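Hi V.,

You were right to ask for the full record rather than a summary. Here it is.
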Amino acid sequence: MVLSTVEAGDFFGELGVLDNSGRNVGARTSGSAVLAKIPCGAVRKVLETETSEAWTHLLRRTLHYLRVTNERVMAEIVHKEKIQLIGEMASS
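Predicted structure:
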């Protein structure tokens, strides 16, 4: 299931940086891609010196990503339940 699409210049993995957790999903590309990996320590060091405005921007972006992902997961669950219900009705 596709949870998110990342465009050129966008970033992902910020939750792992903020809470020091590993990734629990994979990333795939539909074509060629150039990725850059920034070590967590370097990101944290920059964030420690940033203004509250930068933190607010990161928090808003992260919350938006979580909301969009949650909506997609819930829509997929509802869709699967509808299909299952249709199958049950058809078999009876």
